[in-house]
Amino acid sequence: MDLQQVRNDLQQRLPQERYEHVNRVTATAMELAEEVGVSVGNAEIAGLFHDYAKFMDKDELHELLKQDKEYELYSQYHSELWHAPVGAILAKERYGVEDQDVLQAIRFHTTGRAGMSPLEKVIYVADLIEPGRKFPGIEELRNRIAGRSLDDQMTECIQHTVKFLVHQYAVIFPYSFDCYNEHVRRRKEQ
Ligand code: DGI
Ligand code: FE
Ligand code: FE
C-alpha cells in the first residue's frame, strides 16, 4: 500500500487540524508499538486510518454503516461512534487493508472492547494522549501512565473516558463498559 497516497487522501478529506491529529496519533502509536513489541508497520497503518471517516456527514456514515455486521447495535448509539467502524470498512474497501488486527484497531479506537489486542490498545491509548490533546486532566493522565505496562495504560485511559462520558450524562456504548470492567477486574486480581 502506498502510504504517501493515504496521507494525501487524508489531507484532502480532513480539516488541517484533524489531519495533524492523525499524524500525531500515528507517530505516538508507532513509538508505543516499538516500546511494547507490537508491529510498528501495523501501528502506522491503523493510526493513519483511525479517523479516516471522521468528517463524513451523518447520512453518508449511516449509509456505509449498513454494510456492517453490527449495524443494529451501532445505529442505536451516538453517530459520533460511527466513524470508527466505517473507517475500517473504507480502509478495507478503498485501500485493500486485509489485516484483521489493523481493521479491529480502527474499528474499536473510539469505544474499546473486552479482549482488545495489543495493537488495539496502542491505538486507543495513542489517540487519547497524543501530544496535541487538550482536555482537563490530560497532564495528570499522561503522568499516571508514564512508564507503565500497556494494560495499565489502557486501564487508565478507559477509566478516563468512561468517567468523562458519565460526567456528561452521555449514553455509553456497551463495549466501553466491557472494556472498563475487564481492565478493572484484571487490576484487582493482580
Ligand atoms: O475521533 P477522536 O475525536 O480523535 O476521538 P474518539 O474517536 O476516541 O472519540 C470521538 C468522540 O466519541 C469523543 O467526543 C468521545 C465520544 N465517545 C466515545 N465513546 C462514547 C462516546 N460518546 C458516546 N455518546 N458514547 C460512547 O460510548
Ligand atoms: Fe476517532
Ligand atoms: Fe482520533
Overall description:
The protein is mainly α and 190 residues long. The chain has a domain at 3-134: Hypothetical protein af1432. The chain contains eleven helices and no strands. α3 packs across α7. The longest helix is centred in the N-terminal third of the chain and has 21 residues, at 16-36. The protein starts with a helix and ends with a helix. Bound molecules: 2'-deoxyguanosine-5'-diphosphate (DGI) and fe (iii) ion (FE) (2 copies). 2'-deoxyguanosine-5'-diphosphate (DGI) is lined by residues 51, 54, 78, 80-81, 109-111, 127, 165, 170-173, 176.
Percent of residues in beta strands: under 5%
- The geometry reads as globular
C-alpha Rg (nearest Å): 16 Å
By CATH, the superfamily of the domain at 3-134 comes out as Hypothetical protein af1432
**Structural class assignment:** mainly alpha
| Count of strand segments | 0
Largest sheet: none
* Terminal CA distance: 41 Å
The ligands bound in this entry are:
2'-deoxyguanosine-5'-diphosphate, fe (iii) ion
SSE pattern, N- to C-terminal: HHHHHHHHHHH
Under the CATH scheme, which class of the domain at 3-134? Mainly Alpha
* SS field, number of helical segments: 11
Given as residue ranges, the uncertain stretches (5+ residues, pLDDT < 50) are none
> Per CATH, which architecture of the domain at 3-134?
Orthogonal Bundle
Average predicted confidence as pLDDT: 97
Portion in helices: 55-70%
For this structure, the CATH topology of the domain at 3-134 is Hypothetical protein af1432
